[in-house]
Hints:
The chain is α/β, with parallel strands linked by helices.
Amino acid sequence: MEIAKHRFPFSSRGDSWKLVPLGDVHLGAKGCDERAFDAKVMEIAKDKRALTLLMGDMCDCITPGDKRWDDRAVADWCYEPWARSNIAIAQRDRLVNSLQHIPRERILGIISGNHEATIRRYHSLDITLDIARTLGIKYLGEEAFVHLTFEWKGCARTFVIFATHGSGGGRKVGGKANKMTDIAAFVDADITCMGHHHDRLGVRTVRLGLDKNANFTHTEQVHVLTGSYLKTYQVGSPSYAARELYPPTAIGSPTVLIRPQDRHLEVRT
């Protein structure tokens, strides 16, 4: 478990910020839509009120000798002389070259995914930590709380994000939504972000309670599956997901709109 803290100014009551989590890119897999990923990175970079969280499985990190290895499922550039001698490092460097367009203060941190965890365990190569150090951003382990403070004229609004790469399978949207919202039973956060499931999905829940003066309150929370840039099916490119007949998923990332003044949260998928 890790904790990160960030502070941002807002200049008027109507100001809003965007949280655009990026995850499950699987850079280096032949099915990775690099064009869509690079376009989203540039979109975030150009919007001064756009923040991002890196949600894990940023690189595919499947190398020869891994039981998941399939030479037909690797991006063509991984066979270039500069890449083929160490595919995971080449993937890491290519990812960093893309992400460095986003100012580091607007990258809230990076979560480690199961693909990065596997190569760390078997090859002593911590891709996630390398990316964090190179970009100068916070390493968030496998799950983390991120504390956001927005400030305006001496007024502060705080939001708590809980981010996890996630785990497990499941094909039905309802099952994925249940797994995501189950976290709210033991985690107190305004925004929950979970990857791994390669879906873009937003769910809103409401918690009832009393404030310190015994006034009735209702607190809205949003829960987000953070999408993917890996195509399930592609002509001429086999994949594990295709062999298992997983349903195709939409490429891209969701957006959480944050309006600090009235604590409004809205998910756009």
